[in-house]
Amino acid sequence: MDKRSRFTELIKEHEQLIFKVATLYTNSREDMEDLYQEIIFQLWKSFNTFRDESKLSTWMYRVAMNTAIYTLKNSKRQVTTTPINVSTESVMDSANRSAEDKLKLLHQSLQVLNLLEKGIILLYMEGKSYYEIGKLLGLTTSNVGTKISRIKEKLKSQINKNR
Fold it and tell me: Which of 85-112 are b and which e, b meaning 16 or more Cβ less than 10 Å from the residue's Cβ?
């Protein structure tokens, strides 16, 4: 399989990963689409440098998050997350409304996090281990644990404030 076909297949397999990162670090659909394209471009540029020393998805997360952070810092944009647009039907039962309200509250609370904290919590919510998160972000495992603990406290405080 040639390089272009392999890369295209890789992007199709991991497009959700790229979408999650692009969505977390932007506040409009246009910005998200621009960042999505920039991440794909950076993945293509560095595709030959992947050395199979880590999982492909780990490498992609690292490139995607570094691209998002670099792009946002250089553009000096106000960094907020995109509100979750969940359609509400009038016949929705109270359990679903409660879950929707909780999801909106969590997403709203995530807006208080800085760029690094958003990246850490995204990876944590994806089920990455502290070791994997540290390797992706250039942090020690114990530093990741400390940061996650502080992020949880920050989010808990923000959620209580928003209730």
Answer: eeeeeeeeeeeeeeeeeeeeeeeebbeb
| Burial (Cβ within 10 Å: 0-12, 13-18, ≥19) of residue 82 | middle
Q: What is the pLDDT of residues 18-60, one digit of tens each?
A: 988 888 888 788 988 999 999 999 999 998 888 777 788 888 9
Which pLDDT does position 42 carry in this prediction? 94
Q: For residue range 67-87, what is the model confidence (pLDDT) as tens digits?
A: 988 887 777 544 444 454 444
> What sign for the dihedral angle of Cα 41, 47, 49, 54?
positive
What single letter denotes the amino acid at residue 50?
F
**Average of per-residue pLDDT values in the chain:** 81
Distances (CA, A) of 76 to 70, 72, 82, 111: 10, 6, 17, 16
The H-assigned helical ranges of the chain are: 3-13, 15-24, 29-45, 56-75, 94-110, 115-125, 130-137, 141-162
Q: Measured between alpha carbons, how far is 71 from 88 in angstroms, rounded to an integer?
A: 34
| CA dihedral for 122, 128, 130, 132, sign (positive or negative) | negative
Q: Which two tokens stand for residue 8?
A: 């295209």
* Region at 138 (left for phi over 0; alpha for psi -120 to 50; beta for the rest): left
